[in-house]
Write a structure and sequence with these properties.
Elements lengths: L10 H10 L3 E6 L4 E5 L1 H7 L10 H4 L7 H12 L3 E12 L2 E16 L2 E11 L1 H23 L3 E6 L4 E5 L1 H7 L10 H4 L8 H11 L3 E12 L2 E15 L5 E10 L1 H23 L3 E6 L4 E4 L1 H7 L3 H6 L8 H17 L3 E9 L4 E14 L2 E11 L1 H41 L3 H31 L7 E5 H13 L5 E5 L5 E5 H17 L6 E8 L3 E7 L34 H11 L3 E7 L3 E11 L2
Parallel strand pairs: 17-19
Antiparallel strand pairs: 1-2, 1-5, 3-4, 4-5, 6-7, 6-10, 8-9, 9-10, 11-12, 11-15, 13-14, 14-15, 16-18, 18-22, 19-20, 20-22, 21-22
The structure holds adenosine-5'-triphosphate and magnesium ion.
Magnesium ion binds next to helix 16.
């Protein structure tokens, strides 16, 4: 100690400096490294008390005898070269047990007059820091192990240079590269990123600290030697150290190329269909399940004379003809319940001319898992067609009306002629006059049909309704028909059943069905007529054994001018109006009409009417 005191530094002040220094300080003097000075910190670090002061080091800390410290001390003592130890492991006995400790320390020679006389020790216990670092390394390792097995492609880019510190297998596969990219800078490992925004975005995160999240971003990558386009949803997140400094960026990515491509395909085909829809002369539209328009082509906007936005808000009920609206609602509701396609003709007000225009609308539901998802429909302007039909009906109406008067006279003259010829004994010519009368009757009935149709179409058919007994009417009508046919009409009548309807019109229906049954069974000898009566309705059936008709034609026969076309039918004369008129009369009388038929075997035409109790 004496040797050490130079420059008038007092021993006292030196001891104070030593004891108050924030680091562990000690002085080991002589070849046996006697502890001459040891401040509180170094005693703590050694885990010893003040009593060791004055003892040689290895006596004071016998546990370090076989550790590296004595050798280092000797080396410094002999060579005079200071030693700087960093995170050196030492096993130190504290309170009777050995502890694993780490030290940073400096051994520096102390020179006396005769050369090196001792060694000064400055040390810090860095055990906690070393252990913390170890734990950190372990957890980082575990974290990387986790990322390694993650399903997401993951990479960590360190520093602003973006050195690929880590990339899991998924990410390397995504890049189309191998393990050799680890340790390289991102822009060198993936030169194709040049000209794409990602490197700049990453570098920017070091400045802003704001993470970047991408949804389905396009990334072009060199895969198998070709630059290919992929789509990724990914995130760049800054990783910060204890001081809050960003030291790296973690990239987690998911390949969504397939998803994006298939959606694009769907969009393409959708747009193709939309082009197609735009090119069509009809109004083409789709609605949601509850009937709100979600697509329509420009024809609708033209008709309504408004913009796409306005169409969405448009109240369609306002422009549908009041007479058609109830029926339209009914048909749509029915179609929604049965999940079937519907067709309807109705009138829409054309804003440009302020006139109603006839449209034919056909809508088909799109059904998924038994639920209607939407409706796809077309509306065709059939106004011109409707006008032509009207003109035709008007013409037919006038023509048949005009024909009726001369026919009535003709009939009268034929009858008079027949009577006169008979009187004069000219039976042969009287027979001709009779035939003439019969043909006139036929012609009158044809004209009657035409007139009826024009009346029905104009909504002008008038029903003269009364109460009458149904079975009685059937009996009378059958008897009348029996007189003019070679077929025998078998009659099975269930008595009773009063209906409220137009007696003549119902008789017309019965006549129609019976004459069809006869007409379309030329080879058969008989037809069967049956009636049934329950509390609520009466039913009429006429069964024939004739040509029958194919299943798919069954419902069509009730349409206007419809005639089953086949080899056989062409031989039967007719206008195709009888069943149409019959079905209209039955409809208006709140009844039902239908047919069962087997091609080549025969048909059974039936209708029922509600019966009333009096
Ligand atoms: P008209 O207007 O003179 O009655 P039509 O008999 O041809 O002519 P409808 O009575 O309306 O017209 O019948 C329509 C079509 O239905 C007929 O053309 C025929 O093809 C078919 N049809 C009607 N009744 C029968 C039946 N009993 N058997 C087979 N086919 C029938
Ligand atoms: Mg007929």
């Amino acid at each position: 100690m004496k040797n050490f005191l130079k420059n008038n530094v007092s021993l006292e002040s030196l001891t104070t400096i030593f004891s108050q220094a924030p680091v562990a300080l000690g002085m080991l003097m002589g070849e046996d490294f006697t502890i001459e000075v040891a401040n509180r910190q170094i005693l703590e670090l050694w885990g010893k008390g003040e009593d060791i002061i004055g003892l040689p080091l290895l006596e004071a800390l016998p546990e370090i005898r076989d550790q590296e410290f004595p050798n280092i001390l000797r080396e410094v003592y002999q060579t005079g070269t200071p030693f700087n130890g960093s995170k050196v492991l030492g096993m130190i006995e504290k309170n009777g047990t050995l502890h694993k400790c780490y030290f940073n320390f400096i051994y520096a020679p102390i020179y006396g007059d005769t050369g090196i006389t001792g060694i000064s020790v400055v040390a810090t216990d860095v055990t906690q820091q070393v252990e913390y670092e170890k734990k950190l390394r372990e957890s980082e390792l575990r974290f990387k192990e986790l990322l390694e097995i993650s399903d997401y492609a993951t990479a960590i880019y360190r520093g602003e240079e973006l050195v690929i510190e880590f990339a899991n297998e998924q990410m390397i596969k995504t890049w189309g590269k191998d393990q050799s990219v680890i340790g390289k800078k991102l822009d060198e490992a993936l030169p194709e990123l040049q000209g794409q925004p990602f490197i700049d975005i990453l570098k920017n995160i070091f400045i802003t600290g704001i993470p970047y999240i991408a949804q389905e971003d396009r990334v072009d990558l060199f895969i198998d030697g070709i630059l290919q386009t992929y789509y990724y949803s990914f995130s760049y997140k800054p990783l910060r150290d204890d001081d809050g400094e960003i030291y790296a960026i973690m990239n987690v990515a998911m390949d969504v190329t397939e998803l994006v491509n298939s959606r694009k395909k769907a969009q393409n085909s959708e747009s193709e269909y939309k082009h197609l829809a735009e090119a069509m002369p009809q109004i083409v539209w789709t609605t949601t399940a509850d009937g709100k328009f979600d697509y329509y082509n420009k024809n609708l906007m033209n008709l309504l004379n408004c913009t796409e936005e306005e169409v969405r808000e448009f109240n369609f009920e306002k422009i549908i003809h009041p007479e058609d609206i109830i029926n339209l609602r009914k048909i749509w509701t029915e179609a929604a319940e049965t999940q079937k396609t519907f067709t309807m003709e109705y009138r829409i007000l054309d804003y440009r001319t302020d006139e109603y225009i006839w449209f034919l609308t056909r809508a088909t539901p799109v059904i998924e898992d038994g639920v209607i998802m939407k409706w796809i429909g077309t509306s065709t302007n059939i106004n011109e067609f409707k006008n032509l039909v009207n003109q035709k009906d008007t013409f037919l109406g006038i023509a048949s009306h005009e024909l009726k008067t001369p026919l009535t006279s003709l009939k009268l003259y034929a009858q008079v002629l027949e009577r006169m010829l008979k009187k004069s004994g000219d039976d042969k010519n009287a027979e001709f006059a009779k035939k003439m009368d019969q043909q006139v009757i036929k012609l009158t009935s044809l004209i009657g049909d035409l007139l009826d149709v024009t009346k029905i179409n104009a909504g002008k058919i008038h029903l003269n309704q009364n109460h009458f007994e149904f079975s009685q009417l059937v009996k009378e009508t059958v008897e009348e028909q029996q007189m003019s046919t070679a077929h025998s009409i078998e009659l099975n009548i269930e008595k009773g059943g009063t209906v409220f309807a137009d007696r003549d019109r119902i008789s017309q229906v019965i006549t129609n069905l019976i004459s069809n049954a006869i007409k379309y069974s030329p080879e058969a000898g008989k037809i069967i007529v049956e009636t049934k009566s329950t509390d609520s309705e009466v039913t009429f059936m006429v069964k024939d054994f004739g040509i029958g008709m194919p299943e798919e034609k069954k419902d069509k026969v009730f349409e206007q001018y419809y005639r089953v076309s086949g080899d056989e039918e062409s031989t039967f004369p007719g206008l195709g109006l009888g069943l149409y008129i019959a079905s209209q009369i039955i409809d208006r009388s709140e009844g039902k009409i239908w047919v069962d038929s087997v091609l080549g075997k025969g048909s059974t035409f039936c209708f029922s009417l509600p019966s009333v109790q009096i």
